[in-house]
Amino acid sequence: MKVAEKKKVNRDVGVVVDPTYFSEIPLADIMDAIENHGYLVVDEEHNRWSGFLCGREGQAMFDILSQETGKLDNSNLRLSWYTMASGRYEVLAYVA
Questions:
Q1: Which of 28, 40, 55, 83 has its CA 20 to 30 A from that of 21?
Q2: CB-based contacts of 10: which residues, under 8 Å, 6+ apart?
Q3: In the predicted model, is pLDDT for residue 73 greater than 90?
Q4: Cβ(64)–Cβ(41) under 8 Å?
Q5: What is the pTM of this model?
Q6: Rounded CA gap, 14 and 94, in Å?
Q7: Quick check: 93 and 79 in contact, CB under 8 A?
């Protein structure tokens, strides 16, 4: 993914995770924001990632596939979360 495209994707991902605090991790919305730019968050078999995140806090990194070429892109989604005392999640996400 070129730098200019990555900035556009991160701007849309930033809209999803701002505000930072959530009752649940907005993973589907983050993935939709990336898909709107022609990329797909995928698992190790290059299928659209599906699943759930566990733990009060954690970090995850997901591969990104270009829908145009069908090949893995040189970028990935980085996601971290932390559960505050209120039970709400602090979520940070960006494409690197």
A1: 40
A2: 94, 95
A3: no
A4: yes
A5: 0.91
A6: 7
A7: yes
| Spatial separation of the C-alpha atoms in residues 91 and 82, rounded to whole Å | 7
**What residues contact 79, with CB distance under 8 A and at least 6 apart?**
25, 27, 30, 53, 59, 60, 61, 62, 91, 92, 93
DSSP 49-77: P-----SSEEEEEEEEEETTT-SEEEEEE
**Which pLDDT score is estimated for 74?**
86
- The residue among 78, 88, 96 whose CA lies nearest residue 20 is 88
Long-range own/partner contacts, residues 80-87 (CB < 8 A, 24 or more apart): 81/25, 81/53, 81/57, 82/56, 82/57, 83/56, 83/57, 84/21, 87/23
DSSP 48: B
Query: Would you call 39 helix, strand, or coil by DSSP?
Result: strand
Q: What is the mean pLDDT of residues 57-69?
A: 95
